[in-house]
Amino acid sequence: MIQWLRRFLYESTAAEFRSAYSIAESVERLRAATKRSAFSAIGETAAVGKVSPDNVRLQRIIPMVHNSFKPFFMGRFEVRNGETVLTGHFGMTTFVKVFMTFWLGMVALFAAGFLLASFSSTALYPQVVVIGPLLMLAAGLGLVALGKWFGRNDAAWLSGVIAQALDVPRVGAETRQETTIDVAAVPMVLKGVALFLAASGVMVLFMDFFGPRVLSAQVVGPPSVAPWWGNWHKVYAVSVILLAAGVWRRRPWAWWGGFLMLGMSTITSLLAMPMSTPGVPPFMRAVFGAFAVVVVGVWGRWWYAQRKHFLWTAAPTV
């Protein structure tokens, strides 16, 4: 059990990449193939991190996805027999290892303490108190396992980026070069956006027709809170559903429509703020409004990067 837990949390995979260039040129080539901050990779998947002769620390950044348990590459450049070598290992960061060790250790101590105390005739703990720490321990281990599963391809992907930058061919390694667009396949990211938009439109229609019947007035809220007038919310719902269909079919007009929807959502939210938050001071409303604009700006930048998935030229007929 101890050996399994040690491998589960602390195991790393050694890796070496031989470069066809000097250390200085290898560093420059790897810097050119990677990005320095996660924000700069908000539009597309990229290798992000620090690159210097004595410290290379890279991770795979997937836009709008955070995974603390994915593998990082940590290494350094050195010269062996006149040849430049980037040597290091893939594994979770030291902070994550230390934090999970402390957290799992404390939960395990509580679990053992309550479990032993439950056998005492003088201690009458509720069953949930005894079982709770054990469930938390299982959930923590499961969370780490899930994060490692989601990041199972990151090491191979980073290896492809590093090898390509250092001009070292690696058979079967996935690189970050874009392949020719497939007009028949819908990218997963567009599927997710389309399903989210369709669900939003359906929810608006559901609340319009069935909300007052199945929900109380306290849940639905007073009519003055809604930023809609007349039947415009129905038009909005139908428009969102049509936009979802356009995104799924990768139509260029749907890409432009995404910006229109983001802009309209921001404007209506700002207009509805005085009615929906009557007790909030104007200064706090201004802060919330500025934050909303920043969030929409980030999503707008991300949506702009999805332009590559849309069919800007007509597909050839067979």
Distance between the termini: 60 Å
H/E series:
HEHEEEEHHHHHHHHH
- What is the multimeric organization of the chains shown? single chain
Judged by helices, strands and strand pairing, the structural class is alpha+beta
Counting structural domains, the number is 2
- Kindly state the number of beta strands: 5
Mean pLDDT across the residues is 81
β-sheet strand percentage: 5-15%
Q: List low-pLDDT spans.
A: 171-181, 216-229
Strand order of the largest sheet: 1-5-4-3-2
Radius of gyration: 26 Å
Question: What is the structure about, briefly put?
Answer:
The protein contains eleven helices and five strands. By secondary structure, the chain is of the alpha+beta class. It has a five-stranded antiparallel beta sheet, with helices on one face.
